[in-house]
Structure formats: C-alpha cells, structure tokens
Design goal:
The complex is a heterodimer of chains A (310) and B (769).
Chain A lengths: L8 H17 L12 E4 L10 E3 L4 E9 L5 E10 L2 E12 L1 E9 L5 E10 L4 E10 L8 E10 L9 E2 L6 E2 L1 H4 L8 E5 L9 E4 L6 H4 L12 E4 L8 H6 L4 H6 L18 E8 L6 E10 L5 E9 L1
Chain B lengths: L1 H17 L2 E9 L10 E4 L5 E3 L5 E6 L3 E9 L2 E10 L4 E8 L3 H4 L2 E2 L7 E2 L7 E4 L1 H6 L15 E4 L10 E4 L8 E5 L2 E2 L18 E8 L3 H4 L6 E7 L7 E9 L3 E11 L6 E12 L19 E15 L2 E15 L11 E17 L2 E23 L7 E26 L3 E20 L5 E21 L4 E22 L13 E2 L3 E15 L5 E11 L3 H5 L2 E3 L2 E4 L7 E13 L4 E26 L4 E27 L2 E17 L20 E10 L4 E9 L2 E2 L7 E2 L2 E12 L3 E8 L18 E9 L1
Parallel strand pairs in B: 1-7, 13-16, 32-35
Antiparallel strand pairs in B: 1-4, 2-3, 2-5, 5-6, 8-9, 10-15, 11-12, 13-14, 15-16, 17-18, 17-43, 18-19, 19-20, 20-21, 21-22, 22-23, 23-24, 24-25, 25-26, 26-27, 27-28, 27-29, 29-30, 30-33, 31-32, 33-34, 34-35, 35-36, 36-37, 37-38, 38-41, 39-40, 41-42, 42-43
Classes of the chains: A mainly beta (310), B mainly beta (769).
Chain lengths: 310, 769
C-alpha cells in the first residue's frame, strides 16, 4: 500500500508566503521603473549654440533628436519664453519611437529667447531640455510699410476689391485676381455659407473655405499663398498700432512661436490683428491689420490700416 | 291498470335511479380559499364527469352509491385522485384542494413588493424568466433573455462584441430610465445611469424578475419604465455545480462554471463560487466600402470570478456575504498606431452583505453593498482636412479613466397585521460618486470632472385583500431626499487644443431635492383563472453626474455641465389582466398611459465655442419637455401539447414629446416628435419544442422603424432576426447545445453607419451535477 506523506502545516505556510511574495515582486512593473524617453539638442553645424548673442531679426536654427523609452513618444511641446512671458510654439500629438525636430526662426525683440522642448510618452514619462539665445543690445528694429484706409470687400460687392498684396499694397477684384494669384496674400469674405456661419472673415488663397466664395481659387497653382492670423486680436491697443514706426510691435506680437490660424473668423471694428505670410513670395513677412470700420453683410466691406515688415 | 301505473312510475324514476346519487362540493386552491374554476372532475373508469364553476362549485351525479375514485385535474394544478364512499343520500359540501403545478408555483416573485408574492396576485404586469427558460433560450448574454418580453427593447447590435447592451422599457428611451438590480442591489450607475450587462455570469443566474411600469415607490431613482431584478442561484445544501465550455464564430472561446455546497465541519456554512471567461477576435464594424487602414476587428476578452458565503444563524435567519470581480476589454474597431487601438474597458469590484431574519413576527432583510467600477475608454483618432487631399492635421490619443462608486444599504421590514394586511416599510441609503479624467497622451491636458450624488429614502407599503382574497390591493409610497455635492470640472496643463474649455472650469454649488413616489394598485380575481387589475404608479430619474459635472465635446456639439439639472418624473396608469381562454390559450394584455414631466433634453445655449477643429454649438442638458407614452402590450401563450409551447408578444408604443419649453430655452421646438430609439411596434414569437431527442427553441424578433435623433430626421428601418438553440442532455449529467443568433444573416446598420453582427454560431458542451 502506498503511503502518502503530507507536508507539515509550517511547510504549507512557507510555500504560500513565498508564492504571495513572488506575486508582489513579479507583478506589475512600478511606474518609477519605467524608462523615460531621451531628448538631445542638435549641436551640429548650422544649429545655434546655447547663450549665443544675436541681432534682432537674426535667422537661426534649433533642433532636437528624440528616442523612446519603454513606451512610444506621444507628445512634443515646444515653448518660447521671452520677457513677455511664455508662448507655446508646438503641441503635437504623435506615436513615434524616434525622430528629429528642426525649426528655423528669427530673433524677436526680447532680451532673451528661451526655447524649451518637452517629450511625453504613453507611460506618462517625460524628458525636457532647453536652449537660450541672447539679444545683441546694440541691434535695431526693422523698417515697415504702412497702407492706410485699405477697403477690402465681401464676395457680393462685385466692383469691390477682396484681394490684397502685402508686398505691393495692390488691391484686386475677383475678375483680375486670377492673373495675379502669386501676389495675393489677404482675401476677405462674409462667411454666411459656412456651417456654422462666420461673419466678416480674413483669409488667404491657401485656406480651405475660401473657394466656397471665390470658386476659381480651387484651381490656382499649388502651393497657394497662405497667410496666418493670430487669434488674439485685443492685446494691441489702436494707439500703439498708430504709433508704430518700426517692426518692434509686430515681432513682439507675432513671434517665431506664434501658432497662427488660416482665417480670422469674425472681425470687428477696433481689432488689431497680427499676421504672417507663411507660403508665397512674401513668406516670412509679418504685419498688423487695424480694422477702422466695418459694413456687415455679403455685400459689405472693411476699412483697414495695414503695417507690414519691409 | 295498477300494474301499468307501477310500470310507468318505474320508467319515470329510472333516470333518478340511474343517477340516484349526487356529489356536491367545491374545488379550492390548497393555500387559502381561492376557488378554482374549469377544473375537470371525472369518476375513474367511467365517462361521468363535470367542470367546476366560477365559484369552484360542482355537482356530479353518479349511478350508484358506494366507493368511487374521483379524478380532479386542471391545467395549472397537479391532478389529484380521491376515493369517496358515496352513501345513497349522496355527498354534499366536499372540499377538494389542488396544488399549483411546480411551474406555476415557481411564478413567485419578490421584486414587485419586496415580499414573496405570486405573479397572479399582483396588481401590475410582472414576468418571471425561470432557470429552465434561461437554459433553453438562444442567448449569449444575460440581456438576451429579455428580448422576448413584451415592452422591452434590447439593443445589442454587435452581439457579444458590444461594448454594452442598452435595455429600455415601456416606450421610454435611455437605459437610465430602467432600474436593473442584481440580487436587489442597483446596477445603474449614478455617473451615466447605465448598466454593465456584460459582467453578469449567466451560469450563476437562477431567475430574472421583470416588473413593468414605474417602481420608484419601492426602489427610488431610475425605476421609470420598470424594474429588472437578476437573482443568482442560492447556495445548495448538497454539492452541486455546472461547467460549460464554448466555441463560436469570430474565433470565440469561452468557459463558465458555478459550484456550490456546504462544509461538513460547519454545516450551517454554505458556499458558492462562479466564474466565466470569454475571448473573441470580433469583426470589422465599418461598412466594406468605407474601410481604411484604421478599421480593425472589435476584439473582446472578459472574465469574472466571484463567490458567496452564507451562514444559517438559525432556522429563520441567514447572513450572506458575496464578492465578484469583473474585468474586460472590447475593441472599438479602430486602430491608428497604438497596438491596443481604441477600446472600452471595465473593471468592477462588487461586494455585499445581506441579513434575512425575524425580530418577533417582523421579517427583516438588510443589505449593504458597494460597487467600484473603473471604466476606461481609449480613443485614437486621425483628424484630416475637410478638402482634398485630406492631409492629416492632428493625431489624438487619449484615455478616459473614470472611477465610479455606487454603494449603499437598505433595510426592509415586513409584518402581517390581522389576516388581511401585510405592511412593509424600510429605509434606503445610496452613496454614489464619480471621479473621471480625460488623460491626453498626445498633448499635456488632463481634464477632470467629479461629483457625488447621495440619497436617503424611506418607504412604506400595505398589501391587503378582501372578498375572500379575490380582491387584492397594494398601496405604497417612498420619499427620496437627494444631495448633489463636491462637484467640479477642471483642466490641468491645458494645451492649445483644449484651452477653450478653461472658461467653463470651476467648482459647482451643492444642490438637493426631494422626490415622492406613490403607487396604488388593485387586482380582482374573476375566477381562479381570470383576473383583472388597474394601477397607478410614479417614477423618477435624477440627472446623471456625467450631465451635471462634465463638460466636453459630444457628437452634437459642446456639452456644458448643468449642475442645476432637476430630476424627471413620470406618472403611469395601467389596466391589464390574465385570462385563460381554454387549456391551450392564455393571454396577458395590458394598456397604459404615462405622462412625463421635466424630461431632460439637450438644448442650445445660443453660444458657440471655437475649438481648434471647428466651431461648436454649446449644449446643455435641461428639464425642458413633457412626454406622453400610450402603450399596449400583450402576451399570448399557446400550449398545444406537453412538448410544444408557443409564446407571442406584441408591444405598441406611441411615445411623443408633448410640449417643449422654447420660451425659457434656445432650442428647436420638438413638440409632437417621437422619442428617439423607441420602436412603435415590436413583435416576438418564441417556439419551444421538446422531444426525447432534443430541446429546441426558435425566437423571431421584429422591431419596427424608429428615429435615432430628437428631431426625427433620421429614421432607421424596421428589422427582424431569428435566433435558435438546440440542446441535448445525455448520460444525465452531460449536455451539448448549438446556439445560432441572427439565423438569416440579416445585417443591421446602425445610425452611426456601423454594421451589426452577422450570423453568430456557438457550440457549448456542459457538465452539470
């Protein structure tokens, strides 16, 4: 007859205790043990070094290389800190293991420009780095061109001019815009056909809804000229706009970090709207539009003063 | 002449002599003096017989005195045979009592009144789905069992791959308007009002009780359309159990188990454990002509493990504790870069303790429970430009991580007063809260909302009878005081994408309100088989925490939290009955009219938010409308023979918005529009055929057309489906079954353009002891 020997009670307790301990040890990996992403500034030739001193308007290049830790990289935030505070230049979603990010910028008006980069991954782990560029205190602001009392019409004002060039200051009707498409940077319409509708709107050939009002733009050459507008329209008093004689106020309000929109949806009299031409022969030029008066409706118009970097 | 007269006299008296003796008496139900009509009385071995009248009385004439065997039978009662010694003078006032058949006796429910009550004694429409029916029905989830009930609309378009099922009743849309309980514990969550049907192990369920019409007088919030109580199997005295494994379409595999018994050393201590596991590859829900690389199969895995312990303190009192853990993950059918893609996930811990016992002659039931749910929903989206070449403008990956706690305790006491009254009274405390975050992986934002909804309630009920128990009345009322508190909506580290919501952040003021819900019903037994009832009942539903403290994008626009949201109320009057037409046909009709006040709807505030993607209208859930539901329900049961049973149900609902407050709110007038997602007509047929080779059930379900939007602009066409199950038990303990859902492969496309599940086949093998 086979005799079974049963383990003692103490033995059983030890086995169970060991099992429980092993479960704790090998259970989930703790958050602190998870490897964060890696982030390095690009220091190759052509990229600006930390603490470099440059003049106002000086073009420079910054960049980073990023690599994943234990999880995919899902977010990159780039901010610019100046004397006026912090501005987010990029807040981008992604799902990536490694990548490079390079940005060409021009120096603004502040005593310093600090570019910060923060990576986050799906585990919530992050990595950060920054670079600071300093202003040459002897450098000067750039000159500007002023266009006064420019009348820009909505789509149903057949005789009106809805198309404007920031380089030449020329105005075009719908009929003669076609022949001058490479010169056109600002277009106006009254957005009653959109859902939801907008009122008097500043746009450009590269904006997606503009062809609803001017159908011929759909067939214009690619890449179409594009202008971006800063959504914040109330931070510049009209009196400051009127007093501006160089690009100081322009580059302070539309910085290298500003995320502009392809259209400014509902303009009002008194607004001062910063903009930058982003695609086209005038690419890089920044400016301000002051709305002096407005006549609402699809046959209406705005009267504006426009100041642009030379 | 004298001889002739004598001869004629003999001829005249001959019939009297032939039927010289009479047996007179009454047929009653074994418990009480409920007369049984249409009982068949037959003298064994003869063709002499009669049928009992409405009052249960009968008169049976027999040929001669002496011993006879009287066989008494009825469709609803067990047949009895009595040996009678009939004297020459006959028998008078004999009482014959019949026992209800087991199936009829089983039709005792506890949900309608919180007391054990036979269905045919209740002044309302009540249904019971028994353990036998659960085994036989072609179901793959617990809510599938409700498909064949009149007045219940089950929406589980993706079959087992549905994130969850939606069950609504009595012409009222929204799962939050139907109270669902598991062993008396509410499963509706205060956060969204819905129920996670997936977490219930069908193998552990003993029966499902359905009380149609408002039940707030006993159970408080959510019980507007009705109450569904899922009751799990009791602990068994002897070791018992069942194990099942299954294989199905879409590479689905599963297993279910339930075991129960008592310990030998501690015979007063009983136990049961149950568990299930299921996984499947799913299918692609996007229509074939609209698919792109981001459309993937809706995968599924889920499991549950639970158990309970019961200790019999003495013959009349018992303490029971139980715990269940559920975990699942269902793909939403999209995947861009992340290996998990978009998914839904529930993790639920559910614990309870119940005491049943007596204090003197008062029966006490006390229950404390806690349900902790962690709901997670990962979304992965690629946003593109609206015009060609549709360039990708944004990639978004975020996780909604919501922690919901719904706990409470209730105490119910029942005492008999005199012979005709039974009083039930008690109190109910509910403590609910939600703390949710939208955690963006592709930006810095974490959007938080939280709030608490606590309630304290008292209820009272009297059940009494008159006219020799033929006239039964149930009256009751409940008062709920509800407190909304500690609510806020905040955003941590807002990015450009979500910074537009910052102006809506902040803490909300506390709020409280009171709801009183009465009920009154009466039932009159025309005879034993036929009865009629009328009732009035009120119901209410509080606003959900999601509506009261969460702001964010929804498909219609931008939803703004409304902490001022009031509960909606419903008043319902109903008349119905139970009629046995003959031994083959039974019919249960009912008609009802419900009037809802302060119904909650999304209305525009007149403002627009400008997010980075597009302008969105701001919407708020408000108490804006009155709704009216006129409904008819009927269930016809046909029993042509022992082996065949047919059940037909039909429900008609005319559910409309009666008035809409466009003066106070900026909104389109929806007066006269039909409530969305409520079919006007619904019809089911259930055929159950048993023979010595197999049991089989065929279910046909027709759902009429319905609107999927408040403005009644989008009408989904009517659809039908056939489900079938065939099963065989062999060697007493073993079983094999084949379930086919959507037999005709009739694929439904929902209002979001997603495909419903195609034909789904599941093969199960089981062992039961």
């Amino acid at each position: 007859m086979i005799q079974y020997s049963y383990p003692s009670s103490a033995f059983t307790k030890i086995i169970i205790s060991l099992f429980v301990m092993l479960m704790f040890v090998f259970s989930c990996k703790k958050d602190n043990d998870k490897k964060p992403p890696t982030l390095n500034l690009i220091s190759e030739s052509g990229f600006i070094a930390d603490s470099t001193v440059v003049a106002i308007g000086f073009p420079y290049r910054i960049g980073i290389t990023a690599g994943k830790g234990d999880a995919a990289i899902t977010n990159l935030v780039v901010t610019l800190t100046t004397e006026n505070g912090m501005e987010t230049a990029l807040d981008s979603g992604m799902y990536s293991s490694d990548f490079s990010y390079i940005r060409n910028v021009s120096y603004g008006a502040s005593k310093f420009e600090k570019w910060s980069f923060t990576l986050r991954d799906k585990n919530g782990k992050s990595a950060s780095t920054s670079i600071t560029v300093l202003k040459d205190l002897t450098s000067a602001f750039g000159p500007i061109t002023t266009y006064s009392s420019v009348k820009l019409s909505a789509q149903d004002d057949a005789a009106g001019n809805s198309f404007f060039s920031v380089a030449s200051g020329n105005l075009y009707t719908e009929q003669n815009a076609e022949a001058n498409q490479s010169d056109i940077n600002i277009i106006t319409y009254y957005g009653d056909l959109l859902a939801p509708s907008t009122e008097f709107t500043l746009s450009s050939p590269g904006e997606s809804d503009v062809a609803t009002f001017y159908p011929m733009i759909a067939n214009w050459a690619i890449p179409k000229n594009e202008t971006r507008y800063k959504p914040d329209s109330l931070s510049i008093p009209q009196i400051v706009f009127d007093a501006a004689y160089n690009d100081s106020i322009i580059i302070t309000n539309y910085t290298s970090a500003t995320i502009g929109k392809r259209k400014f949806k509902t303009v009002r009299a008194g607004y001062v709207i910063p903009f930058q031409v982003t695609i086209g022969p005038s690419s890089g030029k920044r400016g301000l539009i002051k709305i002096k008066s407005i006549q609402e409706g699809t046959g209406g118009h705005i009267i504006a003063d426009i100041k642009v970097q030379k | 002449m004298t001889a002739l007269k004598f001869f004629l006299l003999i001829l005249l008296l001959m019939p009297v002599y032939i039927y010289a003796q009479e047996i007179k008496g009454f047929v009653y139900e074994n418990n009480g003096n409920v007369p049984i009509s249409t009982a068949n009385l037959l003298i064994s071995g003869t063709s002499l017989g009669t049928v009992s009248g409405n009052d249960g009385s009968f008169t049976l004439k027999i040929q001669k005195s002496g011993q006879v065997r009287l066989v008494v039978s009825h469709i609803s009662y067990t047949t009895t045979t009595q040996t009678l010694n009939v004297p020459v003078s006959g028998l008078k006032n004999i009482i014959i009592r019949l026992d209800l058949k087991t199936s009829e006796m089983a039709e005792t429910v506890i949900t309608a009144t919180r007391t054990s009550k036979k269905i045919n004694e209740l002044p309302s429409s009540v249904r019971l789905i028994t353990a036998e029916q659960i085994k036989e029905m072609p179901s793959t989830a617990i809510d599938d069992l409700l498909r064949t009930e009149a007045g219940i609309n089950v929406d589980r378009k993706n079959g087992i791959f549905s994130k969850n099922a939606s069950v609504n009743m009595r012409g009222l849309n929204s799962s939050a308007r139907t109270l669902v309980m598991l062993d008396g514990v509410p499963l509706n969550k205060a956060d969204g009002g819905g129920v996670n049907w997936n977490r219930v192990n069908t193998e552990s369920v003993d029966r499902v009780e359905v009380v149609k019409g408002p039940g707030s007088a006993m159970y408080g919030g959510n019980a507007m359309g009705g109450v569904i109580n899922i009751i799990t199997k009791d602990i068994q005295a002897e070791p018992a159990g069942s194990v099942k494994v299954s294989l199905g379409s879409c590479n689905t595999q599963g297993a279910q188990a339930w075991l129960s018994g008592r310990t030998k050393k501690l015979p007063k201590l009983g136990w049961s454990i149950n568990s299930f596991y299921r996984r499947g590859d799913g299918y692609i829900i996007a229509p074939e002509d609209q698919r792109d690389s981001t459309d993937v199969k809706t995968y599924l895995w889920e499991y549950n493990v639970g158990g309970k312990l019961a200790y019999n303190i003495n013959e009349n009192s018992k303490l029971e504790v139980g715990y269940t853990y559920f975990d699942d993950k269902t793909g939403d059918g999209t995947r861009v870069y992340d290996p998990e893609g978009g998914y839904y996930k529930y993790r639920t811990n559910h614990a309870y303790a119940t005491y049943h016992g007596y204090i003197g002659k008062t029966q006490i039931t006390a229950n404390a429970y806690m349900q902790l749910e962690n709901y997670m929903n990962q979304k992965e989206q690629l946003k593109t430009e609206k015009t060609p070449p549709y360039a990708i403008t944004q990639y978004v990956l975020y996780l909604t991580d919501s922690h919901r706690n719904d706990g409470g305790m209730w105490l119910s006491a029942t005492v008999k007063a005199g012979t005709n009254h039974k009083f039930t009274y008690g109190s109910d405390i509910r403590l609910s809260g939600a703390d949710a975050s939208d955690i963006y992986f592709t930006s810095t934002d974490t959007i938080n909302n939280k709030g608490k909804m606590n309630a304290i309630a008292v209820f009272v009920q009297d059940e009494f009878s008159m006219l020799n128990n033929r006239f039964k009345i149930v009256a009751g009322a409940r008062a709920d005081a509800v407190f909304f508190s500690d609510a806020s909506f905040t955003i941590a580290a807002p990015s450009v994408t979500n910074s537009y919501m910052m102006e809506y952040t902040g803490a909300y003021e506390d709020k409280s309100w009171l709801a009183v819900s009465p009920k009154l019903g009466a039932r009159y037994d025309l005879n034993h088989s036929n009865s009629v009832y009328v009732n009035y009942a009120a119901g209410f539903r509080p606003g959900t925490l999601d509506d009261m403290c969460r702001s964010g994008s929804i498909s219609k626009g931008f939803k703004l939290a409304n902490p001022e949201l009031e509960p909606e109320h419903l008043h319902n009057v109903e008349a119905g009955g139970f009629f046995v037409i003959n031994k083959y046909f039974k019919v249960e009709p009912s008609v009802y009219y419900s009037l809802g006040n302060q119904f909650q709807y999304f209305v525009g505030t007149g403002d627009t938010v400008y997010s980075t993607s597009s302008p969105k209208a701001i919407l708020k859930r408000e108490n804006v409308s009155k709704a009216a539901v006129t409904g008819i329900e009927a269930t016809l049961r046909v029993n042509p023979g022992k082996s065949l049973e047919l059940t037909f149900t039909y429900a008609y609902n005319h559910s409309v918005i009666k008035s809409f407050d466009t003066v106070q709110f900026v909104a389109k007038d929806l007066s006269g529009k039909f409530l969305m997602e409520v079919p006007k007509n619904r019809f089911t047929t259930m055929l159950n055929w048993k023979n010595k080779y197999f049991n089989s059930m065929l279910v046909y379900e027709y759902t009429g057309s319905l609107y999927t939007d408040d403005e009644n602009l989008v009408e989904m066409p009517a659809y039908y489906r056939f489900d079938a199950k065939i099963s065989h038990v062999f060697a007493r303990y073993y079983s094999l079954s084949l379930t086919i859902q959507n037999l005709t492969n009739n694929i439904y496309t929902d209002n979001k353009g997603n495909l419903g599940i195609s034909r789904f086949i599941m093969l199960e093998a089981g062992y039961r002891f």
